[in-house]
Amino acid sequence: MATIAGCMTNDNSTSSSISTTVRSKWFPTVLVPTLPRMSVPKLFHEPHVETGFRQTGAHCFSNKSEMVHYTCFMIDYAGIGLYGLGSGIIHYWHKIYLCIWFSFWEPSLTDHLEQMLWFVLGGFFFGSDIPQRFFPGLFDFIGHSHQIFHLCILMTSYKQLDAVYQDIITDEKELYAGEPPTFYNTYGAVLLGLIINFFIVLGFRQEARQKIDYEIHQITKEQ
C-alpha cells in the first residue's frame, strides 16, 4: 500500500508534468523557424523541457526502491546544473550594469526581474513548508508547498524564455553582424555537460549502492 509520503511524491509528479507540458507547448509557437539564428534559443529552451521530464520521472518512480529513489533524484539534481548551463548568468550582470550606470532599461529586463521574483517565491515555498505547516493534513495531496514550488519554477523559466525571445527581437541586427552559432559552441557545450553529469551520477550511484549493501549486511548480521 502506498504511503502518504509516496502519494505526495506522485502528486508532485503532476505539478512537474504541468510544467513540462507548458514548456513544450511554448517552443513551436514562439520559436518559429522564420526568425534568424534560432539554434541558440532552441538550445536554451531544451534544458527547460528536460528539467520538467527529469522532475516528473523522479517523482513518479522514486518509491520503487531505495536504490531507484537515490538514482532518480541524483539525475534530477544533476540536471539542475544542465539547466544553469542552458540559462547562463552573465547577461543578468550586464543588464544591471547598463541599468545603473547608463539608465538604459532593456525591454527584456522586466521579464528577467519577474523571473527572479518567481524564483525567490519558489525558494520561499520550498523551505517554509507553508501552507501545510499551519494546516496539517489538509494539503497532503493538493496545494502542498512543494507543488507550489514547482509552479513557481515553471513561471521562472517561462519569464526567462520570454526575455530570451525579447532579446532576439531587440538585438536582431547584432545577431546578424556576429559569427553564426556552430554545433560545437551550442549543442556541443550541452552534450559535454550531459556526459559529465552522467559520470557524476554513476559515481554517486555506486556510493549509494555500497551504503545500501552495508546497511543490509549489518541488519542481517544482527538477526
TrEMBL record:
Binding site for Zn(2+): H146, H150
Topology term for the membrane: Multi-pass membrane protein
Entry keywords, A to Z: Membrane, Metal-binding, Transmembrane, Transmembrane helix, Zinc
One Pfam family it belongs to: HlyIII
GO-annotated molecular function: metal ion binding; signaling receptor activity
InterPro entries: AdipoR/HlyIII-related
Superkingdom to which the source organism belongs: Eukaryota
Record field: transmembrane: 184-204
GO cellular component: membrane
Family: Belongs to the ADIPOR family.
Name of protein: Uncharacterized protein
Source organism of this protein record: Pomacea canaliculata (Golden apple snail)
Lineage: Eukaryota, Metazoa, Spiralia, Lophotrochozoa, Mollusca
